[in-house]
Amino acid sequence: MNETATSQSANSNNINKFLPNTSTPEPSAGIGRWQNLIATNVAIAVGSRVNASKSEIYVNGMCVQLRGTMTSLPSVVVVSGEPKFADASNEVLTNPTVVVDIASGDSDPLGRVQKLESYLAIPSIKECILIRSDEMRVEHYARQQTKQWLYRIYDERDDMISLDALGCKISVAEIYAQIKVRAIGLSSKAVN
Questions:
Q1: pTM
Q2: Which domain holds residue 73?
Q3: Which of 3, 34, 44, 71 is deepest in the core (most CB within 10 A)?
């Protein structure tokens, strides 16, 4: 692990790592129940609304090419159109349209920022969703133009997230179905 820059702390349940693209990384056993349920909820919500013949959805394990030789394992990846891969074995995706990353409160904040910046630098990504597994909080980045993103926070069950790149909407209630999380103290209505 000497070449690996990781976004997980020693006690974190977050499996998303920055890894050199010398081999395809495999998810570690550290992913937790809530992260799995949230990823499944997102995949079901999006999958039931997008045209399956024009999109592919990958859950907990599709490696995404970042800058240079770095890769990451987002929780959910959606590709609109034909997927493109960096390798002949179709294990390192180069053209994600939407990336969903699920993190807990004990995830390394610096690693999360670096990973977010790497996602936002990928030209094919139109939307990036960051979901907290320990509290009801969804951060949504939607590309407006090159290097210009619209940032929204959703933290109430009845909030609707519009995924324009996929032509669908999903609710925070769908994302957190069956999930026991604490409400955050500051409502997005107070800051948005």
A1: 0.80
A2: 5-191
A3: 71
